[in-house]
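Running low. Any example?
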Amino acid sequence: MENDTWGRVQQDLLKAVGKNNYTNWIEPLEFDSVKDGVARFHVPTNFIGNWVSRNFADQIQNHLIRAGVSVADVRFEVPSRAMRPVPHTAMADTGPGERAPTVSAAAAKATKGASSDLPGAPLDKRFTFDSFVVGKPNELAHAAARRVAEGGSVSFNPLFLYGGVGLGKTHLMHAIAWQLQAERADLRVVYLSAEQFMYRFVQALRENGTMQFKELFRSVDVLMVDDVQFIAGKDSTQEEFFHTFNALVDQNKQIIISADRAPGEIKKLEERIASRLQSGLVVDLHPTDYELRLGILQHKVEQYRESYPGLKIQDGVLEFLAHRISTNVRVLEGALTKLFAFGSLVGREITMDLTQDCLADVLRASDRKVTVEEIQRRVSEHYNMRMSDMIGPKRHRTIARPRQMAMYLSKQLTSRSLPEIGRRFGGRDHTTVMHAVKRIEELKAVDNQIAEDLELLRRMLEA
């Protein structure tokens, strides 16, 4: 098979798998040869080879056959060269249990002088500091990420970023890696997900390559691990992660970790690991407020101007979206993308009517109402108390404080009036609810535990 034949097959695959999958997984392939019915391709890393083999091998084989190539099998191999650029691995934030690696061909060329065995991976070129919109809920996380990205010594190690889906953890992780590559090309930076760390470790165990695994991971200058909650409950992986963590910290190497919750709240995570993760700077990316969501939308609109020249958007549409879609930035951005694409296809100005018609399904999903009863149940479970005590007469502090928090959340997350909330808490007067709301407002400003509990409960209720 000639290279021009493979070129035609690549174009067919682009149409079949889509631009994103093509750029991530097909473009990095280098055609090697066809011999005895086996088509061989070179891949930058074993991880990419295994992923392509599992997910795209059949499609590649079918397209080769359609192009007239006699192929009974397709194989992907890392070429035996001593030195190759490190690709950098990232996991696209698609939600719990639905993470898929993303690969950028340009990123595979970005780091110089590193071994091909180093399990890095491609970064998303969209996720830089320039494209990150800063607001009050994420300003501390942004400042900490900027500081680490300078590449010098910092007073906090590790940097631990946590928050719910779509709040910017992965964006900041990518941005740090991009800036380190641009300004400190001498550093060996590896960015991967906890799932990939586990996969590499299991592979090393299977192939009797644990010593090589240890040497690789402990030779980096900056280790970035995304979604560390996925190693919880995996005893052998946790053990290796713990020793890798300690070895790098002892060498004054920087570690950056992200997760969907604080270290102490990750179930089945070993206490010694949670303790080490909390030894640096732990930063929560809070749910976005209205101003930040509006800023993100305005930033995206400016980006879309190039792709959709002349497309008009009516005043008030962005404000409407920022109010209605409040829990997930990714859903918010996806809604705007859909809106612009629809407006362009039909050749119409994006009005409020068009917005409500086009995004009817997204808006319905965002309209989920939190009830007082659901808040009572969640708070009771969180504090391990009975629902009957939540609405009963007992006034002991271990019961009264969670009850006040439930009242506060009911005022914040529902449209119920103070008298209605009071009735649902055992027929209490509206002044009792007012006092509870005021007391929790005061406490959350001075008590970090209460502030964290409130944020965790809010995220669970709005999820």
